[in-house]
Automatic annotation (TrEMBL):
Residues 46-315 form the G-protein coupled receptors family 1 profile domain. Keywords: Cell membrane, G-protein coupled receptor, Glycoprotein, Membrane, Receptor, Transducer, Transmembrane, Transmembrane helix. The chain crosses the membrane at residues 35-55, 67-84, 104-125, 146-166, 190-219, 260-278. GO terms for molecular function: neuropeptide receptor activity; vasopressin receptor activity. This is G-protein coupled receptors family 1 profile domain-containing protein. Belongs to the G-protein coupled receptor 1 family. Vasopressin/oxytocin receptor subfamily. It comes from Phaedon cochleariae (Mustard beetle). It comes from the Eukaryota. It is found in: Cell membrane. One of its GO terms (cellular component) is plasma membrane. Residues 225-245 are annotated as: Disordered. It is a multi-pass membrane protein. InterPro entries: GPCR_Rhodpsn, GPCR_Rhodpsn_7TM, Neuropeptide-GPCR, Vasoprsn_rcpt.
Amino acid sequence: MSEEVMDELSVYANTSENSTKIDNFYFYEVEQFTVLWLLLIVIVAGNSGVIYTLIMGRSRKSRMNYFITHLAFADLSVGLISVLTDLIWRTTVSWNAGNVACKVVKFLQVVVTYASTYVLVALSIDRYDAIRHPMKFSGSWRRAKCLIIAAWLFSVLFSIPILILYEEKFVQDQLQCWIEFSDQWKWQMYMILVSVSLFVIPAAIITSCYTIIIITIWTKSNATFSSSKKKNGGRAGSDNSKRASSRGLIPRAKVKTIKITLVIVTVFIICWSPYIIFDLLQVFGQIPTTQPNIAIATFVQSLAPLNSAANPIIYCIFSTHFCRNIWLLPPCKWMCKKKKRKARDSTVTTQSSSLSEFLTNTTHKKKSEASTAVDHTVFIHTKK
């Protein structure tokens, strides 16, 4: 199971050691397997499509595409390393890969989870730098690469304790890759540190960066519009003012930036807050240790990779470039060709039937005219 789920089950195991009626491996199998399979499909398909379109497509080389490529790679790793191993582990229930694999798999799961979050933070910082200093071109690529390297280094650094904390252990007669603390206050400290490093600090940085971006765009656009009016003698109906206002270029830029900001921040918070809030409430004793709560806990933890599934969807919604490239992928391209072929065949069939009907009507008309001419000739001869 994923590192988040095992944290939750470990807490329940520690708080219910004297209870023989609680099954720490009880969960709603059909529902959770369905959710996990859907998450795996969306994460792998969506992020693979993004990486393919950026690497194999004709996209121009930009810092934005560079960050999105790394973010898609981190999200794809979440699907393949975290969600896929979670599915396999839920199928076998017990851990059968050995103690070394236990530590390595858990370490990699935490690394890609942190990387998915920290690359998003790095992207936010880069967008902030691009808006605040639009003419600062020198060293921009070097700063972008440094941000990506820092994101991955911090992810590895914060994941090192997992190599020490996780180990094989028998839990309710099942061999598990497990984490355990002797005292409850240690669990509380552990979850506070995880919450701060994985959610609170990244959310604060992302929110701050995009808030400053909105304020900067709003201020600069208003200043540009005011200076344009002054240059034209305060005439609101001048050509320059019309370009900036009546065509709606500045308002559209503002609205699009605000939408992207709200979506990125909101999706990040919605995807991670259930896991963080539930775990914090649990370690501080606000959620009773019952069988249904254990099943609910494992289900809530399964939604932690949801942000990795949401990111490619956000790209497609706000970027027509990505949507066009997605439809150029081999499966989508094949479907489009098949659809066009059916439409073309239908058009040809319709045209053929119309032509056949036209020829039939023409033939009947000619026969009718010929018959009328013969009758008229016979009538004339008879009259004579």
